[in-house]
Write a structure and sequence with these properties.
This protein is mainly α. Helices cover 54% and strands 10% of the residues. It contains 11 helices and 5 strands, in the order H-H-E-H-E-E-H-E-H-E-H-H-H-H-H-H. Strand 1, helix 3 and strand 2 form a beta-alpha-beta unit. Pfam families: NAD_binding_11, NAD_binding_2.
Length: 239
């Protein structure tokens, strides 16, 4: 949550023209989003918490989904701009609603990614450990209730690493466009929001622990697909 970006001497509050609409597309807590809404309104500015989903691929292809919180009229006045950023903009409610939706999305993404890593590790341990057999499994699971975008994404990356050209651990140890470290603050925000709401979220705690372990081992730049290698031992597998 980039407080200086908004409140520093040369931040948004000082630079934006009266009546401007500011889009906050980063991940933030709903409480912070509401704080920004109120602070900008006092200065004659309008704010939409408008985080996005779709990853690097969605950003490159212009297919992001934008989850928006704020005034309905402000949202409608900003749709033309948001249409240049993504393929779908959804008004979810008042201040903080977009931020809340993003945290739900990040919790689901991290949880599904962690579950997928365990499933893939188990599959390989039980003998589904060739490129063809893993791809067949992924195809079989496409219509399963257990399927997920993260399973297909991570599974595809792992299958590619099993082409026999190099050791799978080495093949998976590449810098990701959606690295584990990006989930550190997002999961911290999820857990902060849960704590504020009086909720205990074991899966979020587990996912945050995995990210912490990866960062401690200097593996924060790796992809969630690499986590399949982290289940082999109590210690992280080094690339």
């Amino acid at each position: 949550q980039n407080v200086p970006f908004f409140f520093a001497a040369d931040g948004i509050l000082e630079q934006a023209r009266k009546g401007s609409v500011i889009l906050g597309c980063g991940t933030m807590t709903p409480s912070f989003a509401k704080e920004i809404h109120a602070a900008l309104a006092e200065q004659g500015l309008r704010f939409l918490d408008a985080p996005v989903s779709g990853g690097p691929e969605g950003a490159a292809n212009g297919t992001l989904t934008i989850m928006v919180g704020g005034g309905k009229e402000t949202f409608e006045a900003s749709c033309e701009v948001m249409d240049t950023l993504g393929s779908r903009s959804v008004h979810l409610g008042g201040p903080g609603a977009g931020a809340a939706a993003k945290l739900v999305n990040q919790l689901l993404t991290a949880s599904n990614a962690l579950a997928a890593s365990e499933a893939l590790a188990l599959a390989r341990a039980m003998g589904i450990d060739s490129q063809d057999s893993l791809r067949t499994l992924l195809s079989t699971l496409e219509t399963s209730w257990g399927n997920s975008t993260m399973l297909q994404r991570s599974g595809g990356i792992v299958a590619e690493a099993l082409d026999g050209s190099k050791d799978p651990v080495e093949a998976l140890a590449v810098i990701s466009k959606a690295p584990l470290r990006n989930f550190a603050k997002d999961l911290d925000f999820v857990l902060a929001a849960a704590d504020e709401a009086g909720l205990h979220l074991p899966t979020a705690v587990a996912a945050r622990s995995v990210v912490s372990r990866a960062e401690s081992a200097d593996l924060g730049a790796m992809d969630w697909a690499y986590v399949t290698e982290m289940h082999k031992t109590d210690d992280l597998q080094q690339p």
